Amino acid sequence: MANAKNILFIMFDQLRWDYLSCYGHPHLQTPNIDRIASMGVRFTNARIQSPLCGPSRMSTYTGRYVHSHGAAWNGYPLRVGEMTMGDHLRKLGMDAVLVGKTHMQADAEGMQRLGLEPDSIIGARQAECGFDAFERDDGLAFESNAGPNSPFVETHSAAKYNTYLKAKGYDGENPWHDYANSGLDDDGNVLSGWFLKYSDQPANIAEEDSETPYMTRRGIEFIEQAGDTPWLCHLSLIKPHWPYIVPAPYHDMYGPEHMLAPVRSDAEKQTDHPVLAGLLQWMVSRTFARDDVREKVLQAYMGLIKQIDDQMGVLFKFLEDTGRMEDTMIVLNSDHGDYMGDHWLGEKMFFHDTSVKVPLIIYDPSSKADATRGTTSDALVEMIDLAPTFYEVAGGDASDVDHILEGQSLVPILHGTGNPDREVSFCEYDFGHTPQAEAMKLAPNDARMFMVATRDWKLIHFEGGFRPILFDLANDPNELVDLGKSPDHAEHIEAMYAHLHAWALRNSQRVTVPTKRILLRRKNMEIGKVGILIGVNGPEDLPPGAVDQYIGRKAVDKRAPT
Amino acid sequence: MANAKNILFIMFDQLRWDYLSCYGHPHLQTPNIDRIASMGVRFTNARIQSPLCGPSRMSTYTGRYVHSHGAAWNGYPLRVGEMTMGDHLRKLGMDAVLVGKTHMQADAEGMQRLGLEPDSIIGARQAECGFDAFERDDGLAFESNAGPNSPFVETHSAAKYNTYLKAKGYDGENPWHDYANSGLDDDGNVLSGWFLKYSDQPANIAEEDSETPYMTRRGIEFIEQAGDTPWLCHLSLIKPHWPYIVPAPYHDMYGPEHMLAPVRSDAEKQTDHPVLAGLLQWMVSRTFARDDVREKVLQAYMGLIKQIDDQMGVLFKFLEDTGRMEDTMIVLNSDHGDYMGDHWLGEKMFFHDTSVKVPLIIYDPSSKADATRGTTSDALVEMIDLAPTFYEVAGGDASDVDHILEGQSLVPILHGTGNPDREVSFCEYDFGHTPQAEAMKLAPNDARMFMVATRDWKLIHFEGGFRPILFDLANDPNELVDLGKSPDHAEHIEAMYAHLHAWALRNSQRVTVPTKRILLRRKNMEIGKVGILIGVNGPEDLPPGAVDQYIGRKAVDKRAPT
């Protein structure tokens, strides 16, 4: 087969790269995901473009850096007209369908300005990040107290899932919370999964009704209903993202003896960097620095991942039974990691590989990929490479979109025909919206940080006048020693800044003119051939044949009497 | 009066800053323009954002750098949804009307993708740079040989003007060329204004039928027809832009004795800079390096400017007779200069002040501006400052748009309440579309240059690996000595690069979220107040009152049998 007909783009949320057995976890066995790795290529240096759901996904879907698309934080709308992989693939005759989460916020003001109705086909795609939504579910049903100033209220809640739970008899206003994401004590009290101390409790729900099996089934339902038109299905699961709680039997499968030791050093706690020191003071950091909390959370986190792998087994069996495994590319990915106490941090909003490195496994059924099955690639890959990869798989010509897409296709790696490695990868985080920026009295535009990583070095630049942070990845792969102040590393810091500055000046906004059109036209601008003459003194200066229409013409004298 | 009710934004095309008597020209008297300067503020350090019509205007109209809006060359469409001053002002209840040239290319592909019909109100504004077009006329009626690869065919031609000329009896297919922009020999042959050798000929047209009087009348007609709604009228005249030819009596008013001596040195011809050396080889440069050509062209150029000033006199008298002078802000500006042989160059596509410095005169009828009438300001002003200036005049709150507009309002200067000077101004030029880039075999993205100018220094950075050019503006105001290779100036070059790099990392694409919304929301993200809990171990870690909805809730036990 030339190319895969369909693309099943599966994204997990907040899944660390190192909690899968194919990526080396010694105790968490994920045989179903591992099997896809054995059938495809497993990428070991894949990094995201921002360590937060929204901006990371907006870069993945648009194939553009955050600095280019501007949707820099959760709830920041993606500007109307910004093209996504769905818009690009649809031009090639491939449907692009969403099942699950995007964390995309529609640009309601922009849509209104352009007269786009959210319920029109074009408007709905603008509002759903270029996808046709089979089911949109950002995986969080918010508590009613989320006020108008919450940055979260606008994102889509698990409405359909709650409807499903209520139909199954789970009562209350928000069974997503009370059952799927909470435990229950002996007196019938909800033990909210929002509280980490309850993470070792079984979620008070039948396993088959919990989120991962539910959304996996929805994905299968889409594939069952899909017609002959080639499709990209973005099956986007919320787990193992918080709330960290999982139903039996997954809730008590793992104990401390199965967990990776935290990657951290006492010296890290003493950092004098104001931004990093501020991060360490977050409640989430202080909480995850506690081993008792970490162990309860990881017990649920690992269970959630095990449940995901089991559900992937169900999904992959369905694909085989229906013949889809032969014509469907399968992509397994995550939007960012989870510190889980590494470096004394919780959540993900910084640039250690714990957070910015993600699993990426691609199975290509095409015979052209036979030579690379079961191999790994350590190429520096960015998530903005997926859109151009899918575009090529769908039969597109990269030169039609390389003025918009900032990544590069991974197909040469998948087919073993080349290794289009990049020298530097970039990641960005805008924390202007956070309480930390408020506490530090930073103007939003000064609360931005940029990661520049080569194979051997990682530099973190901060706007706002702070010194950089530097890690020696070759000799300090765990990123425990900040060399940002080291006089011995001034040259390395300068070299990394040169990469950053070259990147910052890149041409990212010429999105209306393909480069190839420029190359064609500039070949055709000989004097006299473009309809105007510039700097020509007289006919004698024109090439033969280009003269006629400019001279010799007769005109009736309409000169005004003087 | 609090603020001006209306704004008359007059732009001339290719008008040098130094060919007006109020800017010091010793022989070219422009009393009508000078009078507006005596009634308002004349800016002596106003620079454009790109030395080419299209990108310069797109920056002026959007209030954003070329690096931000991406319409980097003539004919590069302005991406659909990119907001312009018209879009901003209309929100404030002010009409924005175009009479004349914008050089804007509509993003037809983007409009089609979003289902915007060019003949709909929204579509038409998208296609006309946010203006309602009373008359769109880019001032050039192209010759029929302009092929499909001409970058010029798509821009709007002088269709209505040609219709007007034909109705007046000017015959032929293109009277814009044959009469308004050509002379006539004794045998009745058209002496095409495309040829510089005919620039001293009178254009073969009655003066009142030539372009400047025609379009000035059209502007007056709009103002006559305007209702009570406040309006911005962008009266945008093509002249003194080429073709360089003017009807009697303006064609022979000036001679060599009235022209400024060319600003150039023999040393400049010896430049070893590949890009600048390439520019010097253009036919237009070689032609304008000839004194005979230069003098014929300047004879027409000065006549065209004199004609403009006379027409401004007609326009300003109309404003006085109709009371508009009391409620209308008048802005006089140009989109770039014209080398006219200075530095051995023709046209405008480089960064000497000859090209990037432009006249800017603003008359504000508001009594708040009384203190500054007849004064000058040497603040470093950019054309992206006009959109925020107009927004403030229209009564807008800058904090509603400062995430989109990259300039700053000039109102404090006009009212003498402050001097919001900037330390650095920027200008960009993308020559990837030019034959020079083709000859140099430069990839389009490597054919980009950036000007960084402080009050005392000007650095020109080139992508593509070329060395920078540096001018010492304080000691070499004519920019004759390139210090880009001078070891003694390494520190200055480094300092200027620091400005460029800080600018390149600016946050220009977060166009959907006002900064003030971020500042409001980040104050309201206390734990328990935003609908989610992150990193909270237990209820005891929550502030009082934020706990209730998370605990104490009863649930019916739906746990699946195990």
List keywords for this structure.
homodimer, 562 residues, alpha/beta, Alkaline Phosphatase, subunit A, 2 domains, eight-stranded mixed beta sheet, four-stranded antiparallel beta sheet, 30% helix, hydrolase (chains A, B), Sulfatase-like hydrolase/transferase (chains A, B), Sulfatase_N (chains A, B), metal-binding (chains A, B)
Describe this structure in words.
The structure is a homodimer of 562-residue chains. Chain A is an alpha/beta fold and 562 residues long. The first copy, chain A, folds into two domains: 19-515, Alkaline Phosphatase, subunit A (3-Layer(aba) Sandwich), CATH 3.40.720; 525-550, no CATH class. In chain A, 30% of the residues lie in helices and 13% in strands. Chain A contains 20 helices and 16 strands. The first copy, chain A, has helices at residues 31-39, 53-62, 66-69, 85-91, 108-113, 121-127, 159-167, 175-180, 211-225, 266-269, 274-281, 283-288, 291-321, 324-327, 353-356, 386-393, 411-414, 435-439, 490-504, 515-522, and strands spanning 6-12, 41-43, 46-47, 95-100, 132-136, 182-184, 190-192, 231-236, 328-334, 360-363, 375-377, 381-382, 425-430, 448-453, 457-462, 469-472. In chain A, strands 5-4-8-1-9-10-2-11 form an eight-stranded mixed β-sheet, sandwiched between helices. In chain A, strands 13-14-15-16 form a four-stranded antiparallel β-sheet, with helices on one face. In chain A, a hairpin with a 6-residue loop joins strand 15 and strand 16. In chain A, helix 9 runs parallel beside helix 13 (291-321). Chain A is globular and about 105 Å long. The N and C termini of chain A lie far apart (80 Å). The model of chain A has no long low-confidence stretch (mean pLDDT 94). Chains A and B meet through helix 3, helix 5, strand 7, helix 12 and helix 18 of A and helix 3, helix 5, strand 7, helix 12 and helix 18 of B. Chains A, B: InterPro entries: Sulfatase_N. Chains A, B: This is Sulfatase-like hydrolase/transferase.
